[in-house]
Write a structure and sequence with these properties.
It contains seven helices and 16 strands. The chain is 26% helix and 37% strand. The longest helix has 16 residues. It starts with a helix and ends in a 7-residue tail after the last strand. This is Fe2+-dicitrate sensor, membrane component.
């Protein structure tokens, strides 16, 4: 390994701070060939991780270990494996939410129609989001590192609270506190998502990056928030909490929705929409509802 004199001095001080640091350094030296594969940006991430002392010594060492593992794996996306013995799987039905306390004190909340698989080792909590949406709180003192896998990539949180939504062909991550690294997927280098940011990505590219808004996590308070949202997009969200089928006439595509709506009563939400928008509800049964144009409505 080569370093500038200042770097060696920082390393020397860090190694002297605790026996764990010295053991970690020896492990790094033993895997020098693997570490030599780090790009400039990956080395920078490693240095940033060392400086993030607020996450605790053990957590910092584990984050460095994950970085090394990522290099050895070539940063390739690994799709969720089949359920193996010793793994926990949790799911929610329509309109349900589920709180899960992790062995290390972290917490998960599953949204409606969601499923996760959890696997624990001494050093790592592996979370596979199989379907739907999950809110993750790791805390800053969590001793076990975490890795979150979706169909499009792999995420590593750094002392954080964040939301992950597995969509049809993409993943959306909303960071409420802390930082999350997109380690594998559509990026050749790790991509950092910070507090107040939302990132949506597919298998091949970063699709959208925008500021966090209240609507991103309103489901945790039992609400669906719309701000000038196209009606078809709003109905797709509402349908996640509805027992049955909601159909919308294409002629209503230009209508917009704003407001806060309780997700526990989708029938009430639809009735409210019929009073505020030029639409008519046709209900064949309690499980089949169609939204059609009001005969006197204006949809342009």
């Amino acid at each position: 390994m080569q370093a500038e004199p200042d770097s060696w001095e920082r390393i020397r001080r860090w190694r002297a701070q605790h026996p764990d640091h010295e053991r970690a350094w020896r492990q790094i030296e033993a895997t020098q060939q693997q570490l030599s594969g780090l790009s400039d940006s990956q080395r920078q991430l490693a240095h940033q991780t060392l400086r993030q002392s607020k996450y605790g010594r053990r957590r910092t060492l584990k984050m460095l270990s994950l970085l090394c593992i990522g290099v050895g794996a070539g940063w390739s996306v690994s799709q969720p494996a089949l359920l193996n013995p010793g793994q926990d799987q949790h799911h929610t039905g329509i309109g349900e939410q589920l709180d899960i306390t992790l062995p290390d004190g972290g917490m998960l909340t599953l949204n409606s129609r969601s499923a996760v698989r959890l696997r624990y080792t001494a050093e790592l909590t592996e979370l596979h989001l199989l379907q739907g949406e999950v809110f993750v709180y790791t805390g800053t003192e969590t001793r076990r590192a975490m890795q979150v896998t979706t169909a499009q990539g792999v995420l590593t949180p750094l002392g954080t609270a964040f939301n992950v939504h597995q969509q049809d062909h993409s993943t959306e991550v909303a960071v409420v506190a802390g930082q999350v690294m997109l380690m594998q997927g559509p990026v050749s280098e790790p991509h950092l998502i910070t507090t107040g940011e939302v990132l949506r990505f597919s298998n091949s590219e970063l699709l959208l990056q925008r500021p966090l808004v209240a609507a991103d996590t309103a489901w945790r308070q039992g609400m669906l928030i719309a701000d000038n949202q196209p009606l078809p997009a709003f109905i797709r969200e509402l349908d996640r909490y509805h027992h049955g089928v909601i159909r919308i006439d294409p002629a209503l595509s230009s209508l917009r929705v704003s407001g806060s709506y309780p997700i526990e009563d989708t029938q009430r939400v639809l009735q409210s929409l019929s009073h505020s928008l030029p639409i008519t509800l046709e209900q064949r049964s309690r499980y089949w509802i169609s939204l059609r144009p009001d005969s006197q409505g204006n949809y342009n």
